[in-house]
Design goal:
Elements: H1 4-24, E1 29-30, E2 37-39, E3 46-50, H2 57-60, H3 63-66, E4 70-71, E5 85-94, E6 102-106, E7 113-119, E8 125-130, E9 146-149, E10 156-165, E11 174-178, H4 179-214, H5 217-237, H6 239-243, H7 249-274, H8 277-280, H9 282-304, H10 317-332, H11 339-359, H12 369-372, H13 374-446, H14 451-492, H15 494-504, H16 508-519, E12 534-536, E13 543-545, E14 551-552, H17 567-579, H18 586-593, H19 597-613
Parallel strand pairs: 1-5
Antiparallel strand pairs: 2-11, 3-4, 3-5, 5-10, 6-9, 6-11, 7-8, 7-10, 12-13, 13-14
Helix pairs in contact: 4-5, 4-13, 5-7, 7-9, 7-10, 9-10, 10-11, 11-13, 13-14, 17-19, 18-19
């Protein structure tokens, strides 16, 4: 019994030791057809830092260095020192029964040099050179990520060695994928890239048109900011290297820094202009210029001193935070145009934080396509809300302009009332003076001795009265002219009349209902088969024939067909053309409706033609005659 206890104790210790060693041992990844992809994480990757960077594959795979590899404790490894070569070791259990072909893929497109040493059946290693320092045409797959094929004829466990060296810290995200899933994933990825960069171009063109119409610099700043963001994303995704400069690796290493600098500068300039910091926050406005100056100085130092400094992307948190704080500050002070700006930059700040946490390996969740491209999604949300902010600012400016016009009209009314009161007062004084003169005339007749002096006085008074009457007549003439001008301006006033008109037709829904009632007031009849039964179509108030399926929109075969201006403004233009009998000019229409003069001219010419063709019909139609011009 006593002899058995030591043996039992030794066996227990050995089992415990083996269990600890097994827990720390590197885990091999199995190839399975049910597995679409496998991202190597934690104990699936071992690493070794080759500080001199001179070790060969023969040395690395030897027993001397085999025990020097360390177990990876991060979700995805990061190369911290640009001067060090990093060796990574992964183990793969090959399955000869697998019906799929398999590849190794590297996510980070900014890695300068990747050398993958793949084993054969005799454990001889063949190198495959990858990385952004090589021409794009040298890749096996013409894809933005770095990929290489695995030898699918191998059976059992094999060790792969990967040597990585880059001029900046990079995320080493290694993925085992089937070729079928790689093709499917790549097609979907490029599809969403097309949507993302297409939205950037659409927002850029939209703001270019807004600049042409409004002539405000903020639109140019936003266009430059959007294009800079697009270029930066293309550099980060590898799309720019694939399609713009595939034969220029050196430009590929530094282009992202130029794009990021441009995005930072134009983002704060846009925020400064949109939020009107010069008026709303003068101190923040000065701080913006200081940040722009310091960021420009850092950019010059990166170009002239050390281009590796471009990798310090975390510096962009300064201009981004300043723009976000400025929006919050002016919003708290009551500048309502900053509402959507703050929401948009909150998305952008969130995406930047997620991207920074992933880059610094502080992200606690698995790195997937969703959070890897989170910054791109936040850019899209930021563009949407910034567009809302621009529109909100334009709307508020128009509202302020309308209030100013109302104030002018009230002041003109007050001036008119003061002039009327002054005229009445002058008439009363003249009547009293005339009465006094009559009384004095009677006294003069009674007093013959003072007749000459009184006559001279009366002559002078008569001349004074005549002069005052002339002045009064001139004042009355000018007053009548002013009253007529004020009345005309009030009738033709854009904001007053359009607001009154908008009470009847406030929005697109109301206008469409009015058109529907007007167009089919005598009943529906299909234009294709003359069927009188219908159902609702896809568009609001459209009607679909129940027999042949032909759908007719509410604006089809009306004067509003193919019209690009808002429908309530189109109604108001028809109303003005009808009420002025076509005499209102396109310049006046442009001023009232805030629409380009060329568009007003083209549409008013079309209305005039309809008025001419329906001259008899609208002759005695009254104030509703304008609606008879709608349906052609």
């Amino acid at each position: 019994m006593n002899k058995f206890l030591p043996k039992f104790f030794i066996s227990a210790v050995l089992l415990l030791l083996f269990a600890v060693i097994a827990a720390k041992a590197q885990v091999a990844v199995n190839i399975r057809d049910k597995l679409k992809q496998q991202i190597f994480r934690f104990n699936e990757i071992d690493y070794f830092e080759d500080i001199p960077g001179r070790l060969t594959i023969a040395q690395i795979k030897s027993d001397v260095f085999a025990g020097k590899f360390k177990v990876n404790k991060q979700a995805t490894p990061i190369t911290a020192d640009p001067g060090t070569a990093y060796w990574y070791r992964v183990k793969i259990n090959h399955n000869p029964k697998s019906r799929n072909n398999w590849i190794l893929e590297f996510f980070d497109q900014t890695i300068d040099s990747i050398t993958v040493y793949s084993p054969d059946k005799n454990n001889n290693y063949a190198p495959t050179l990858l990385g952004s320092s090589r021409p794009f045409s040298a890749r096996l797959y013409q894809h933005k990520n770095f990929s290489l094929n695995l030898n699918n004829s191998l059976t059992g466990r094999y060790v792969y060695y990967i040597r990585i060296k880059s001029h900046q810290p990079v995320n080493v995200i290694i993925v085992l994928r089937s070729v079928n899933w790689f093709i499917s994933y790549a097609l979907e990825e490029y599809f969403f890239f097309g949507i993302f960069y297409g939205m950037i171009l659409v927002f850029g063109l939209y703001n270019l048109m807004m600049f042409i119409a409004m002539r405000q610099r903020q639109y140019l700043y936003y266009i430059a900011y959007n294009l800079s963001i697009g270029l930066y994303e293309m550099c980060a995704d590898g799309i720019a290297y694939q399609y713009i400069w595939p034969g220029s690796p050196m430009w590929n290493h530094n282009a992202y820094g130029i794009a990021l600098f441009s995005a930072s500068i134009f983002s704060v300039l846009f925020a400064q202009s949109l939020l009107n910091l010069k008026v709303n926050a003068p101190r923040l406005n000065k701080l913006v210029w200081w940040v722009i100056g310091l960021r420009s100085l850092f950019f010059v130092l990166c170009l002239t001193v050390n281009q590796n400094w471009f990798s310090y992307k975390i510096i962009e948190i300064v201009p981004l935070s300043l723009a976000f704080f400025s929006g919050c500050y002016v919003l708290i002070k009551g500048y309502r145009a900053a509402r959507f700006f703050v929401i948009g930059y909150l998305f952008l700040l969130s995406g930047f934080v997620v991207k920074a946490l992933i880059a610094l390996n502080l992200w606690w969740l698995p790195v997937t396509a969703a959070n890897y491209y989170s910054l791109s999604f936040c850019f899209i949300m930021e563009m949407v809300f910034i567009s809302f902010a621009i529109g909100d600012k334009v709307r508020l400016l128009k509202k302020q302009e309308g209030l100013a016009q109302l104030h002018i009209i009230r002041q003109l009314k007050l001036n008119e009332e003061l002039k009327d009161a002054l005229n009445k007062n002058l008439e009363t004084q003249v009547q009293e003076r005339t009465k006094e003169l009559v009384e004095k005339s009677a006294l003069i007749e009674q007093q013959n001795e003072e007749l000459t002096s009184v006559n001279e006085l009366l002559t002078q008074q008569s001349e004074e009265i005549s002069r005052m009457n002339v002045l009064l007549e001139q004042d009355n003439t000018i007053l009548h002219q002013d009253i007529e001008k004020i009345s005309h301006n009030r009738v033709m006033s854009t904001e007053v009349d359009f607001e009154e008109f908008s009470k009847i037709y406030p929005d697109r829904e109301t206008c469409f209902k009015f058109l529907s009632d007007l167009k089919w007031e005598k009943g529906y009849s299909c234009r294709k088969c003359s069927n009188i039964h219908y159902g609702h179509g896809h568009l609001p108030y459209s009607r679909r024939c129940s027999k042949c399926g032909y759908e007719e929109s509410v604006i089809a075969y009306t004067i509003l067909q193919n019209t690009r201006i808002p429908i309530n403004k189109a109604f108001y233009m028809i109303f003005l053309m009808y009420s002025t009998k076509g005499k209102i000019s396109s310049h006046k229409l442009s001023e009232i409706l805030s629409i380009r003069q060329s568009t007003c001219w083209a549409y008013s010419s079309r209305i005039k033609k309809v008025m001419e063709s329906k001259k008899k019909e609208i002759k005695n139609a009254g104030d509703k005659g304008w609606s008879k011009l709608v349906v052609e």
